[in-house]
Target: TetR family transcriptional regulator
Amino acid sequence: MHTLLSNLKININEKIFLKDPESSDLGKRIIENSILLIDDIGFDAFTFKKLGAKIGSNESSIYRYFESKHKLLIYLTSWYWSWLEYQLVFATNSIADPKEKIEKAITIFTQTATIDSNFTHIDEVVLKRIVINEYSKSYLTKEVDKENKDGYFLIYKRLVTRLHDMILSVDNTYKFPFSLASTVIDGALHQHFLKDHFTTISDLKKSDTPISYFKDLVFKALNISNHE
Amino acid sequence: MHTLLSNLKININEKIFLKDPESSDLGKRIIENSILLIDDIGFDAFTFKKLGAKIGSNESSIYRYFESKHKLLIYLTSWYWSWLEYQLVFATNSIADPKEKIEKAITIFTQTATIDSNFTHIDEVVLKRIVINEYSKSYLTKEVDKENKDGYFLIYKRLVTRLHDMILSVDNTYKFPFSLASTVIDGALHQHFLKDHFTTISDLKKSDTPISYFKDLVFKALNISNHE
DNA sequence: ACAATTATGATAGTATTACTGTTATATTTG
DNA sequence: CAAATATAACAGTAATACTATCATAATTGT
Model:
């Protein structure tokens, strides 16, 4: 498994950065530490100046990689979705049975992340926390239509479409394949948030994952039996 | 068990404001025009200075009502949820049949808003757009746990609980009543957003509403027949 | 009526943010 | 080893998100 993926590189739309952070040591330190710092103080309080202080580098140097912290957030979340896509394809590609395939997909989307040693400078567990807490801010902006046209959300949309396709291959008469797909993907993030912060309106306990909820939901929506 | 709404006054937690905006003419102008301005330029670009210019008042006067624009957003979204709660209770209270009741509830949560002439200074249609585009920003913060303790999100959580109760009264063996309730309420907002901005991953057309999707989803989840 | 209270307005000031621009120095490469 | 490139250091700017002070206008209580 490790040898098979040793040359793996997550590809991000070049419009998102000024200079590819994967192309240098400083770039990688920017990515690694921005994840840690955003998780620590939150995206709203996060600045390039603070990041510079953390990595012993200068604010202006960081601006040579990303033109704004907003673009950095888009980069980080795109990286996350791309990484999830690779997990999804890798785990479901060989499965022939549509039911089994979608079951596996739901697992991928709802489970808590684990470290992937293929990408040493990125802590996927922390990154997932960022996606849960900050992803919405990347598209809930006045510029969303323009940035969408520029392909900033392509990987995310491709992931939704992949799940959409799996849904249709289980039941091609189902009328809301896109809605159900985005409900699972975005809803999974949201249920994690509710579990952590609004505990009184969550069915989940601390270390729980919304996997059984979404399996039950999707299986019933598509009229397939749920064998646990 | 919830108490029924006794009048049409929307009550907001007093910790959210410094001075009740309902108590003065200036206060009402702040509410009315902040809704229009946030809708116009987005919450991120919105400032009290710009709002002051719009209403011919001073920045410092607005600060006497709300200590930050964040609190104003909490106020506006709380108002929206409270208004929705009143709609929900008003429309479902007299319905005895649990199926019919939940069907009506889903309609309330998924439909596009219409003007309510009981509140002349608030444009509910525009306010709903704000909730769709900005609500997440009110809780996706580092202060969420503290603010939650202070009751800032109480009305929203009470709404989720009301739907949770309806779900259980249809099927009290259902295992995920809270998750399903928040999926409908928050998912409805999100599906509206996707329809407007990420059209390629939406099943809905321009003037559509996600009502049939959520009805189908909930009815199947709760094993009740869907008679359209 | 009029003093006291309260509400609003005008203005100034502050630390921080989110950058841009310029120059200097260090590192890499051909 | 010169040239190109990358990074660092620093200055500067307009805007943001406030706080603080004082003046004036409107309301209220007796």
About this structure: Chain B has ten helices and no strands. Chain B touches chain A through 50 residues (CB under 8 Å).
